[in-house]
C-alpha cells in the first residue's frame, strides 16, 4: 500500500469528522432539533464514518469477521441507548444480519451461486427497509436508518474483498481526473435518455420551483453513498461477473440493467412502480455502457450521480 494512501486515511477521517460535525450542528439548528436528540444521532454517524471510510482502503479494512460484525452493531448502541430507543430484538436482528454479511464467504463454498446469492442478500436487506425498524427516528422525515445503509455498504464490500477475494472492481470514493471527465461525458446521453424515458412512461413531472442550492449537497450524498454502492455492486460485480461467465458483454449489460431497474420497483413507495423501473432500466443501460468503456466503477459512479442529482433537483 503506497504511503500516500496510508496518510490519506487519517486526513480524510479528520476532515470528514469536522464536516459531519458542522453539518449536524447546522441541520439541528435549522430543523430545531433539541441537543439531547441531535447529539446521539451525530455521535452514531461519527462512529460509523471511520468504518465506512476504511472499506475503501485495503490497509484499513477489518480482516477479522468477528470484529467486522461487532463494528456493525456499535453505531446502533451509540444511538439507541442514550435515546432510550434500545430494543433487544432489534439488536439481535442487526447482529444476525452483521454475522451473515461477515461470515458468508467464510462458511459457504466458493461458487457462482454463492456470489450471486450474496448480492441477492444485500439487495433483499436494502429493499426490505428493515433498517427503518432497527433505527426508529425520533423526528419525522429524519433518516436515521441511513446508519444501517452505510453499515450494509461497507460491511458487504469489506467481506467481498477480504473473505471472498479476487475482486477486480475498486471500492473508492474519489475518482481520478480521467474518471471525472469520462463520467461527465457519459452523464449527458444518460440524462437525455432518462428524460425521454420519463416522458414516454408518463412520469414527466418537473418541479415548479426547483431548489438549486440543494444540488451540491445532494450530488455529494448521492456520489458517496448511493452510487458508490450501486455501481460497485451492479457494474463492478454483477455485470463484470456476467461478462466473464457468459462471455457476452451484451447479455451481461442487458441482464444487469433489467436487474437494476427491477431493484427500483418500490421507488417512491408505490410497489410495484413499473413505470419508474422502466426508466431505471434505461438509466442502467447507460451506467453499464459507461462502466464497460472505462472498466471503472468510478466513471459510472460520477455519471450516475450527475444524472440522479438532476432528477432529484428538477423532478
Quick summary:
The protein is mainly α and 315 residues long.
Secondary structure elements and pairings:
Layout: H1 3-31, H2 35-54, H3 65-83, H4 88-107, H5 112-127, H6 130-134, H7 146-164, H8 177-200, H9 215-246, H10 249-262, H11 274-294, H12 297-314
Helix pairs in contact: 1-2, 2-3, 2-7, 3-4, 3-7, 4-5, 4-7, 8-11, 8-12, 9-10, 9-11, 9-12, 10-11, 11-12
Based on the model shown, name its key terms.
315 residues, mainly alpha, 2 domains, 12 helices, 75% helix
**N-C termini distance:** 43 Å
Sheet having the most strands: none
Question: Please, what is the average pLDDT?
Answer: 93
Q: Quaternary state, please?
A: single chain
Q: For the CA atoms, what is the radius of gyration? A: 19 Å
Helix/strand/pairing class, anyone? mainly alpha
Low-confidence stretches: none
Number of distinct beta strands: 0
Measured by DSSP, the beta-strand proportion falls in under 5%
Shape: globular
| Tally of individual helices | 12
Query: Portion of residues in helices?
Result: over 70%
Amino acid at each position: 500500500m503506497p504511503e500516500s494512501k496510508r496518510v490519506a486515511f487519517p486526513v480524510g477521517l479528520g476532515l470528514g469528522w469536522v464536516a459531519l460535525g458542522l453539518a449536524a450542528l447546522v441541520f439541528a439548528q435549522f430543523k430545531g432539533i433539541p441537543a439531547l436528540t441531535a447529539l446521539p444521532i451525530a455521535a452514531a454517524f461519527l462512529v460509523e464514518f471511520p468504518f465506512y471510510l476504511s472499506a475503501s482502503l485495503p490497509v484499513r479494512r477489518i480482516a477479522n469477521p468477528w470484529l467486522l460484525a461487532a463494528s456493525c452493531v456499535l453505531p446502533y448502541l451509540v444511538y439507541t441507548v442514550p435515546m432510550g430507543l434500545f430494543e433487544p430484538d432489534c439488536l439481535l436482528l442487526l447482529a444476525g444480519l452483521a454475522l451473515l454479511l461477515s461470515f458468508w464467504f467464510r462458511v459457504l463454498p466458493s461458487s457462482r451461486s454463492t456470489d450471486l446469492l450474496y448480492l441477492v442478500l444485500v439487495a433483499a436487506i436494502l429493499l426490505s427497509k428493515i433498517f427503518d425498524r432497527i433505527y426508529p427516528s425520533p423526528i419525522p422525515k429524519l433518516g436515521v436508518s441511513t446508519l444501517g445503509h452505510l453499515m450494509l455498504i461497507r460491511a458487504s464490500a469489506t467481506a467481498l474483498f477480504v473473505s471472498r477475494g479476487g475482486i477486480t472492481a475498486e471500492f473508492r470514493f474519489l475518482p481520478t481526473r480521467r474518471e471525472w471527465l469520462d463520467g461527465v461525458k457519459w452523464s449527458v446521453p444518460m440524462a437525455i435518455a432518462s428524460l425521454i424515458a420519463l416522458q414516454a412512461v408518463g412520469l414527466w413531472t418537473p418541479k415548479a420551483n426547483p431548489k438549486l442550492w440543494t444540488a451540491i449537497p445532494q450530488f455529494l450524498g448521492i456520489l458517496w453513498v448511493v452510487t458508490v454502492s450501486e455501481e460497485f455492486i451492479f457494474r463492478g460485480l454483477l455485470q463484470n461477473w456476467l461478462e466473464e461467465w457468459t462471455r457476452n458483454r451484451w447479455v451481461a449489460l442487458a441482464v444487469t440493467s433489467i436487474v437494476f431497474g427491477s431493484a427500483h420497483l418500490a421507488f417512491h413507495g408505490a410497489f410495484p412502480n413499473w413505470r419508474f423501473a422502466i426508466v431505471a432500466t434505461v438509466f442502467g443501460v447507460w451506467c453499464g455502457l459507461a462502466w464497460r468503456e472505462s472498466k471503472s466503477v468510478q466513471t459510472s459512479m460520477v455519471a450516475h450521480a450527475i444524472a440522479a442529482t438532476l432528477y432529484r433537483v428538477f423532478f
